[in-house]
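Researcher: Quick one. six chains, 1428 residues in total.
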Amino acid sequence: MRPSGRAPDQMRALQFEPGFTRHAEGSCLVSFGDTRVLVTASVEEKVPPFLRGKGQGWVTAEYGMLPRATHTRGNREAAKGKQSGRTQEIQRLIGRSLRAVVDLRKLGERQIVVDCDVIQADGGTRTAAISGAWVALRIAVDKLLAGGQLSEDPIRTQVAAVSCGFHDGQAVLDLDYDEDSQAGSDGNFVLTGDSAIVEAQLTAEGETFDEEGLLRLLRLARMGCTEIFREQLKAVGK
Amino acid sequence: MRPSGRAPDQMRALQFEPGFTRHAEGSCLVSFGDTRVLVTASVEEKVPPFLRGKGQGWVTAEYGMLPRATHTRGNREAAKGKQSGRTQEIQRLIGRSLRAVVDLRKLGERQIVVDCDVIQADGGTRTAAISGAWVALRIAVDKLLAGGQLSEDPIRTQVAAVSCGFHDGQAVLDLDYDEDSQAGSDGNFVLTGDSAIVEAQLTAEGETFDEEGLLRLLRLARMGCTEIFREQLKAVGK
Amino acid sequence: MRPSGRAPDQMRALQFEPGFTRHAEGSCLVSFGDTRVLVTASVEEKVPPFLRGKGQGWVTAEYGMLPRATHTRGNREAAKGKQSGRTQEIQRLIGRSLRAVVDLRKLGERQIVVDCDVIQADGGTRTAAISGAWVALRIAVDKLLAGGQLSEDPIRTQVAAVSCGFHDGQAVLDLDYDEDSQAGSDGNFVLTGDSAIVEAQLTAEGETFDEEGLLRLLRLARMGCTEIFREQLKAVGK
Amino acid sequence: MRPSGRAPDQMRALQFEPGFTRHAEGSCLVSFGDTRVLVTASVEEKVPPFLRGKGQGWVTAEYGMLPRATHTRGNREAAKGKQSGRTQEIQRLIGRSLRAVVDLRKLGERQIVVDCDVIQADGGTRTAAISGAWVALRIAVDKLLAGGQLSEDPIRTQVAAVSCGFHDGQAVLDLDYDEDSQAGSDGNFVLTGDSAIVEAQLTAEGETFDEEGLLRLLRLARMGCTEIFREQLKAVGK
Amino acid sequence: MRPSGRAPDQMRALQFEPGFTRHAEGSCLVSFGDTRVLVTASVEEKVPPFLRGKGQGWVTAEYGMLPRATHTRGNREAAKGKQSGRTQEIQRLIGRSLRAVVDLRKLGERQIVVDCDVIQADGGTRTAAISGAWVALRIAVDKLLAGGQLSEDPIRTQVAAVSCGFHDGQAVLDLDYDEDSQAGSDGNFVLTGDSAIVEAQLTAEGETFDEEGLLRLLRLARMGCTEIFREQLKAVGK
Amino acid sequence: MRPSGRAPDQMRALQFEPGFTRHAEGSCLVSFGDTRVLVTASVEEKVPPFLRGKGQGWVTAEYGMLPRATHTRGNREAAKGKQSGRTQEIQRLIGRSLRAVVDLRKLGERQIVVDCDVIQADGGTRTAAISGAWVALRIAVDKLLAGGQLSEDPIRTQVAAVSCGFHDGQAVLDLDYDEDSQAGSDGNFVLTGDSAIVEAQLTAEGETFDEEGLLRLLRLARMGCTEIFREQLKAVGK
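Model:
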């Protein structure tokens, strides 16, 4: 029995609330159980310096956590004056994951900045962020298509992410904080709507992996992402 | 007619959602119309260095704004590596306002850190933050009283804040972003439940004030705060 | 009897020494009793990025305190690597106060940066700074007018500031450090030469305010500023 | 044919020069072809604050790159005043990889800081760093064992890392800079001497992965690490 | 003829105004012509961490320049968030120069922090700062001796500094800004009251030095310092 | 007898390994005994902002020390977020020393950035850095001449540096770390190939200098630099 009482291949309750805030071109409050992340997609009619004049766009992400999103209060990164290594690692991962399903040439010379801010944390904040980010991005791009700024859809397919790990030797899906703390080893998988892997990150803590274990986790991840893909589509009304 | 269509002495729709997040000892999502601020109160069993061994507690506040809380995206302060002067000014004001109604001796040697994070901004974020902060603080202190960590209530009375200003020569209450941008002069008042002023900040932009104007604004502020006090009490079930 | 032995409505000895340093277009060493602030106004033939090409100028201020301006040595902000919230709050106030009496269109596309550095502190450094800043600004603008860079005077009127507060229930003017430490509540008023209020900031510490108290402080502030206005004019030879 | 002319499963020339610098308790200059990383292991008789009094030690890593280690000069991180997200991501990976093979309880209350500084970069700096770090760590721990500060060996097994990726649809081992730039997708594997996976990070750029591809890369990684393990042992004289 | 019209071996007008500010244990406004530096010496009853429990004291210095001390306004270091290399170089030099004439054992476990802030700059700010620093230090130490905190005088002798350089092939003393800008090569000498050299820094710009030139500059420096020593003694009433 | 057992006028073993890294236009690993500094010269086809359009080039230097280059590990400057005063002082000295022998007009509108990174420290890192920097610069400039980007050689002569100091009253050359720690006073001299002094920095610690001592050190420095000049020429094949 896993700590959460869920079946090994059972996701937490998934919820995508599109349009949670009104200023952003796209927004979504995503919940993976008690993990809640507010995602906004902001369209900017300029690209970063390294892309100027190259005839293509850019998609990038920033990640943050409210100081009391967690069990005990963490220091505010703005007050400390720098983003932690963990924060930077996560926001780089979110950005790469989104770019994997976007044709940057079709986006034109504009940038979409996706902000993922964790309102409440209970494990899997980065996977919830990636999954919600696709919804916010989809909404923002739909607005550009509807407004005629884009004529062709630059988003090739969906992208979603989920964590998996071993708990007491059993492969389990979508770990919450308690399960994550006790997991011998775990990983995050980012998959596309056409079933391809775009990112996989596995870390052994205590226990190590072998091929067999890796494939079992990947199989679980596919199951989880299938469910996420379905909810994403509902959220964007497709 | 004011831009929002409201009567001069009419507040925006007020909403306090207590317990919006689950980890913090006290939390509240406060809405003044489209302005929405998530406030958490975190109890820490230690005091800052300058108070160690002095037999009293401390209440302090931090303020932040999600990058796309506003009409156009602002830079993330954590990424820039510093908090703006505006941010620091506001969080100092929130902290002073709360301390004005707390008996720090009765709090014991513990600190309550109140985080106010703006989810969506439409004018008056600091006044919404102060008003919501009292609710989060009240909930956190009630938990300390219920748990026996405190025997006497350190909160003397309520505290709330509201903005007022002159729009086309008319004194109006609780300015939204559009009204604030057009106001000739405006101010923020922080009042206590027993009707005293704890902070008043007035700034003339374009038009200047005289005593008469100042008193008219103050009268409006009293009306607004009376309404806020009522909603605060409902939110904390009193 | 107030601690300083002064009458309740008595300012400290005021002194404005124009031209205290020779490189700045305008400069002034202002003393409010033992509080001494060196102010320089520097004319720059460019405006900040957000104003480029808008056909108007800008006036801004920076504030600093020498490490041993105070009773005990404070850390040097340049060594700590950041300006405190208090410093930023004060320099924003000085800038707004000056801009309240300047027609930025008449200034042309140039910026005047006013630096206020506290040489010695004994309470009221921000009010002395604002009062001295007007003198330095006036001198710099006179130089622009004399040199033909400006044809019309962009300064509409004078601006001055003074603090007031309650000491043992009595409203007193221009608090020194000792009085400020013991004041139940106090505030800073920024007034223009034509008697209008441009900024008012009141903070209750211990005692709170009511309308009556607020008006008594404002009345004192008017008396103090009248005296400051007179000395400012003498300093600039008008 | 891969750009480097190597066979798909061929590593670059490997070289470990133990004792490259004389002050560190352990040091090693590791070369994976033209990629050269200087690694030092420094023993400190204290642990970080979060471990004080817990009866265990710590192993951590820092990573840096000399400004002209690369084809075009990069800015010096010390001059910019912060470490990039990439730097932090890599040094966290190195630290986790080393801790995966160390029994921190047996290390006692001391810390070993492993510094990995890239002298020359040609792809695979993080995998060379991890592989060299084990050698420096082994030397430092041997010194502690010889000196009697440790009675039991805290290092459980070897650890090594290598990159693999797809080039023109072919799975290739140990990518150099040119190959890495052209790879459709690639990854880094960190394996232990007893053949377990401790870290796996895969990123698709352009092409995506499937299980089959993932397993092919893993198989190559095993081959590469076997060779690295052999050279590590030679370097430490075992 | 040198630009300033002075004789080659002529110092600018020297002035030491002791007690310029009232809070510091020692203070002095020193003028070398138009170069004016405010120096304060602050006594702290503690030593930096590296000296704790070693039975000796410490003397250290910090240096700053008001933004408009110079011909054109420089950025405020506190606003930029860091001290320039030049600032750090100068404050390290001032600290070493003072420590060269102080017996740190006799000072006891206390620190004297000397702040040198340039009010107006016209060349030679570091030499004026060192020369004025001795006066402020002397006054602060005299206060400790008079108050009985010290029983023996820790100051062994005077210390002063002056610049010299070559202008059109002629060795000249105490360069002002114009002369410094045109000098082919110049240097700063720090000498003690008993005629010994404690610091010498020479830099060739355009022209280089030889032994002969070096000795000519040193001879001028001795003449200049003799005059400074005399004025220092007058300033401290000895 | 000096601690190192060397004769008073004996340099440590000198070694210049040109071309130590392959990406930089010029590079050199310089050893003064156990002090080893890796120097690279990077050619950039642009100049810093203050020189744009002035028809001249620039040579600048940066200095760093690997954390465990020293006996005990120092903090990584990139992790601390700032360069120490010592680092900045040294890199400014290296830059000035190189510029003293380069005709910046002949360099054209390009910049050469010289990075000096200390791999292992045993005293005299700045003098080794300057001496090695000339070699790296020479190689980079030779490449520009050979490639036709430059038609005239902008390097006027060689430049080298060495330290000297008094140990037990005896003047000794090229101090190692132990000797430097015990030296009563010491200095660094930067000399050109035509025997002129471009920089001299002398600091008395404990003992002071007189003219006689200064000249003895200078004489030693000439002897040391003569040997360095010879080795530099060998290294660049001239």
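The mean pLDDT of chain E is 95.
Researcher: Thanks, that's what I needed.
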